[in-house]
Amino acid sequence: MVRQHLRTTAAGLSALLLATACSTTEPTPEARSTAPATHPADRWFGSDYDRRQAAAFVALRALDPCALHSPQDLQQIMGMTPDELMPAGEFDVCRLRLRNREFDPGWDARINVAARWSAGSGTETVGGLQVSVQEDNAHSCTVSRPLPQALLHELAPQAVPDTSGNQARHAISLTVSWSTRSEAPPTPPCQVTRDYLTAVADAWRQPPRRDQHRTTPALPLAGVDPCAAAPELAGLLPGSVKMTPLEPYSCTLRKPPPAPLDTPSISVRLALNDDPVEQARTARAQVGLGRPTTIAGRPGTLGEGKGPFGSFCLARIRYADDPRVRVDESREDTPVSVQVVEVRAPGCEQAQKAVEAVLATAGVR
């Protein structure tokens, strides 16, 4: 757990220094926050829905979920110490953990800037915002606020049409959970969630963007479009294929239905994850995480496996050497997370070529 790295920016939001080494030579996220009117993968999208999703994801990648958190406010509400603030895998989700002691139960708060919007049983007003509140279970509660089309257009005017009258499809969500099921939380989770949203409501009205640098260090991969290499990836599969943008940081290329589920496909995922280079040095690399490799000058792992729909090859490549995010900065034996490009393909030759194409669109050549 990251400790004693909380600090407050001039804008009043709490930010976490996620790594001890902050220098990077990759382009800043804002350099990639705009997109051409026609998406590079446009001809490979299978439907207008996919095109709208891809355009919306351009806008959602511009948002900084960690800057929506306020550790000081949550500490005051919960009476516990913030000890970790970092992306939870993909860059559109940021987790804030609070504990009094390392192995004690505590609260986890996750903000997702690319959640699906659903009013559910209706909306209510919290902190002056119209939101949906859902009690997930006795230990967890989620509150969501729809993101209007006008805001997505403002974030990515070249990609998202200015159709402010359209119904919202995406939302910012906040999920607050008590970390253990073995005991009841000290406060009802939905009460904590409402109190926390009330404290940070101003930030939710105009969500902070990555190019405002509210959090450090910058994570350049968070500005990369995982579907942008579609023209190159399409040539690695036989026949006519379609690209499906699943989430802001994941895409899949495959033959469209009614093709069977075991049809060869290529998937791309971008995330902050365990360092594949470090994993390859451990015994864990012998149980399915792959062998050490280098692709386009970047280190990582390459390994074959079998899933429910057949065999595949998985490449996990370190996008950049810095920043390196250690779960507990005070201990050298804790895992390190880095920006990772992950590609799954039918074979390892295809996986390697796919990684090369993704890295090239991300500015690594």
UniProtKB/TrEMBL annotation:
It comes from the Bacteria. Residues 1-21 form the signal peptide. Keywords: Signal. This is Uncharacterized protein. The lineage of its organism: Bacteria, Bacillati, Actinomycetota, Actinomycetes, Pseudonocardiales.
